[in-house]
């Protein structure tokens, strides 16, 4: 007979595990809501409704944390960070970016280990096709980048991607209507290189990720892959992309 457990019977360590599950469930439920709205109403509407839901829940969520931890509040964020200087906050942003990339990697590996590389790459490409647009739209909203801002808007947005906090990248202008983007150092590829592994063949996701991101900034921008693994590439960069304003 299965033992019937109640919250009152659980130890402190067991309650901590329940708190972990609660955070995971919030993230999962939010993601599933987003996906359901996207499938029913389209990605643009999902992004807009996500913003409405976030702005609605943020004040309540912030007040709960402020009350729980006896913290002050600053711009909707618990004042735990209020004494941090700019450099410390940027360091936290870099850590969050590393966590984001690691989370992407462990999802890929979890699917690959159970179902193989083919399905993992398929789901990876599908996920990135949506995420890159979401990220672009949120950057535009946060920085107040106008619609149809051209290559200057794209260049600015590329500098605020989560990738920009964990990788080393550069942009080069060729005339007034062409922008070259190079990923000089890639955290994922560099890690593989240290382990004497070949480049991860990321071109299949890149040809989704970069064109979708660019078109989300300005639909007139056309994207061309210059090189991306498994393509051969020079030592100066792992992948390079050309953006042209038509």
Notable traits:
alpha+beta, 6 strands, single chain, globular, 246 residues, 2 domains, two-stranded antiparallel sheet, Muramoyl-pentapeptide Carboxypeptidase, domain 2, 8 helices, four-stranded antiparallel sheet
Total domains: 2
Number of helices: 8
Fraction of helical residues = 55-70%
Write down the secondary-structure element order: HHEEHHHHEEHHEE
Rounded to the nearest angstrom, the radius of gyration is: 21 Å
Cα distance spanning the termini: 69 Å
- What amount of the residues lies in strands? 5-15%
Largest sheet: 4 strands, antiparallel
Top CATH class of the largest domain: Alpha Beta
Given the helix and strand composition, which structural class is it? alpha+beta
Point out poorly predicted stretches. none
Mean pLDDT: 86
CATH topology of the largest domain: Muramoyl-pentapeptide Carboxypeptidase, domain 2
Mass-distribution shape? globular
């Amino acid at each position: 007979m299965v033992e019937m457990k109640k919250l009152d019977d659980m130890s402190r360590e067991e309650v901590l595990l329940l708190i972990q599950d609660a955070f995971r469930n919030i993230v999962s439920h939010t993601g599933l809501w987003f996906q359901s709205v996207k499938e029913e109403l389209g990605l643009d509407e999902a992004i807009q409704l996500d913003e409405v839901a976030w702005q609605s829940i943020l004040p309540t969520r912030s007040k709960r944390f402020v009350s729980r931890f006896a913290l002050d509040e600053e711009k909707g964020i618990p004042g735990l960070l209020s004494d941090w200087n700019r450099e410390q906050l940027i360091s936290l942003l870099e850590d969050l970016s590393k966590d984001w990339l690691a989370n992407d990697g462990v999802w890929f590996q979890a699917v690959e280990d159970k179902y193989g590389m083919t399905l993992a790459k398929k789901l990876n490409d599908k996920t990135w096709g949506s995420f890159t647009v979401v990220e672009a739209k949120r950057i535009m909203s946060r920085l107040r980048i106008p619609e149809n801002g051209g290559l200057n808007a794209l260049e600015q947005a590329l500098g605020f991607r989560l990738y920009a906090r964990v990788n080393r990248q550069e942009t080069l202008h060729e005339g007034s209507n062409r922008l070259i983007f190079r990923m000089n150092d890639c955290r994922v590829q560099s890690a593989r290189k240290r382990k004497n592994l070949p480049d991860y063949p990321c071109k299949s996701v890149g040809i989704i990720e970069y064109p979708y991101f660019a078109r989300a900034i300005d639909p007139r921008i056309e994207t061309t892959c210059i090189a991306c693994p498994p393509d051969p590439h020079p030592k100066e960069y792992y992948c390079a992309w050309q953006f042209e304003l038509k």
